[in-house]
Amino acid sequence: MKKVSEVISTNKANGNQTLIGYFPAGFPTYNESLEACIAMCESGVDVLELGVPYSDPVMDGLVIQQATETALSNGFRLSQIFKLVAEIKSRVSTPVLVMTYWNPVIQYGVRRFAEQLKSSGAAGLITPDLIVDEASEWLSISEELGLERVFLATPSSTQERVNEVTKLSKGFVYAVSTMGITGAREDLDAAARGVVQKVRTSDERQNVAVGIGISSASQVSEVNSYADGAIVGSLFVRTYLEGGIQALKRVTKELSAENLGE
Q: Does some domain include residue 260?
């Protein structure tokens, strides 16, 4: 099983960019989300970020909120995330990171969740609302199971806070480009470079990927010029919503590193 850190390191060594693509599990239905994720992996995403639908997605923009509401209304349940990951991994080699708010993991049971995550073939977790000070149980279990763990750093994070996030993250640090919710924007916040620099200052060997607001191939290229990966979410969801799986494949190819020079 490929680790996210290995994929990013290989891309950097070969002079390639890294594209991390988000899609909500169960949107609009379980089977349709499975095929959408496979299509993204086959069309050029280097890492798949699989979102767990949650009833109170405080960090997500309207496009993703509506998509996760659709998934929940169509019956998606947390326990299905492990089956979905396993089905994706049976068909592609792309590493899968599950992105989830922390409350569902607590309710499910941290060890139970982590062990089933490991068994499914997932590389690890992105936990947007879990701060490192409150992550002791997850840190211990993820270390034991060899799961990667991605924490967030924001423009308002102090250097001391970024130092902790950098030290404890495995896979990469998620650098939030703006102090708002997710959603494609025409211009990336210049603060993203500041967050990346803080991670570099802490540990230049740590991978850092920028997310929130990336919506074009030029922005993917720009972000990869100073970070180790670009994270795209709302654009993929909106594209699928408006044009289905064929449009999703087209946009993924347009954004992926292998197509940026064409």
A: no
CATH number of the domain encompassing residue 189: 3.20.20.70
pLDDT at 62: 72
In a domain, 206, yes or no: yes
Q: Is residue 262 part of a domain?
A: no
Contacts 24+ apart (CB under 8 A), 242-247: 245/35, 245/36, 245/39
Is 57 exposed, middle or buried (CB count within 10 Å of its CB: 0-12, 13-18, 19+)? buried
Whether pTM exceeds 0.90: yes
One-letter amino acid of 45: V
Give the range of the structural domain holding residue 200, as residue numbers without chain letter.
4-254
Residue 60: active-site member:
yes
49 is catalytic: yes
Residue corresponding to tokens 């209304």: 73
Choose the catalytic residue: 35, 42, 46, 60.
Answer: 60
**Beta-strand (E) ranges in the chain?**
19-24, 47-51, 96-99, 124-126, 148-150, 152-153, 173-176, 208-211, 229-232
> Which one is catalytic: 49, 148, 189, 228?
49
Asked, for residue 261, whether it belongs to a domain, the answer is no
pLDDT at 262 over 50: no
How many distinct structural domains can be found in the chain? 1
Residue 217 and residue 93: Cα distance in Å, rounded? 23
Q: Show the tokens assigned to 175.
A: 């650098």
Which tens digits make up the pLDDT trace of 46-103? 999 999 998 765 566 677 878 889 898 999 999 999 999 999 999 999 999 999 999 9
